[in-house]
Amino acid sequence: MHIVLLSGGSGKRLWPLSNEVRSKQFIKLFRREDGSLESMLQRVHRQIRSVDRNATITIATSKTQVSAIHNQIGRDVGISVEPCRRDTFPAIALAAAYMSDVQKVGRDEAVVVCPVDPFVDDSYFSMLDRVGEEAAKGRANLVLLGIEPTYPSEKYGYIIPQTQDPVSKVAMFKEKPDVETAKGYLAEGALWNAGVFAFRLGYLLDKAHELIEFSDYHDLYAKYETLRKISFDYAVVEGETAIEVMRYEGTWKDLGTWNTLTEAMSEPIVGQGRMDGSCEGVHIINELDIPILAMGLKDVIIGASAEGILVSEREKSSAIKQYVEQMDRPIMFAEKSWGSYRILDVGEQSLTVKVVLNAGQRMQYHSHQRRDEVWTIISGTGEVIVDGNRTSVGCGDVILLKAGVRHTILAETELQVIEVQSGKDISVRDKTKHPFP
């Protein structure tokens, strides 16, 4: 199975757990059998491997998500990096060119595209394999996966099949309706459009060349910023006549809001939280190192992280995006290729950050022109390099880094550092990379 996972999202609908860098698929909320927590990305990756250990997985994503992907699932996946956001058709066209030119996937091979963040059971991925097999037969240029609706939803588009057979030609598509219209669609045997489709790679490459002038993957990547923003549905699906839909009746949830996310959680509290016996329908998701106590609440969601704190009635939580867009704050937490960082305090001329480097990792060798830094090692062991001079460090060591000096830190074990930046113009742009000594 060749599968493309679309990993996008702005991180606003699940604030404060998500942000522009850390989208919802990276939040660890789901309990594994061993008791540890996993993210949507880790869950989906594990499920694909359980169904097809040799599946070719390609993730179409932005630059800002690459480090988090590698940290969470390793490097056994291909990554098609979008230089900027250009909607789903350019993203899928770039991924197709990547698969053809970099991964050397053949034109007659079937490719299945799906979102990275559905909450599903393993039967869903077995069905994806069947969707790919159907596409490989070549009877249709596109094969969609339609979800058997469980209620008349306003949140999804609908696929109207010609018949009620397990695989049917598509009669028409319908946009997101109101509830009464959706009831009519269900009476016609309509299916939810889950954004899952399969095609032979050569078909999609031909479509991409029809709509975009490019020679190969590298050329398309170079001109990506100039491409028109357009969805795959508008660019390809709605104009295709040789199109089928396969019916899926298993577990499927779109975890796009706090409301749907908490419905899929196996427990009401993640992190430090308690609630009294009078609470009903309350969920606490707390990433802070302080406890949250809820009393006498009903149908309330409480989310807390370094980005902020949300307290919302369950039904009101779907309207969060408009308020988050009005907030102007730096990103307070992010995963990097070497580990992660969390901003602890923002002063007028200072910034305090907790840095965690994974064992065996290091930062880039770099310098700053407009700020000094002080590193205090609070746990672990490693090595600091300052202007080419190497020094072993451990818990309690303090390193002073003046503006202009070249520096990096290497972790032997997991290394935790408190970094205090000071200066009149503290900015992420004040960074010059240098060759590693």
Could you describe the 3D structure shown?
A hairpin with a 3-residue loop joins strand 21 and strand 22. The two termini are 43 Å apart. The protein has a 6-stranded antiparallel beta sheet. Helix content is 21%, strand content 35%. The protein folds into 3 domains: 253 residues, Alpha-Beta Complex (Spore Coat Polysaccharide Biosynthesis Protein SpsA, Chain A); 53 residues, no CATH class; 96 residues, Sandwich (Jelly Rolls), CATH 2.60.120.10. It has 10 helices and 30 strands. With 437 residues, the protein is α+β, with helices and mostly antiparallel strands.
| Number of helices, where a helix is a run of at least 4 consecutive DSSP H or I residues | 10
Structural class call reads alpha+beta
In the sheet with the most strands, the strands line up as 20-21-22-29-24-27
Apparent shape: globular
Instruction: Spell out the CATH superfamily of the largest domain.
Output: Spore Coat Polysaccharide Biosynthesis Protein SpsA, Chain A
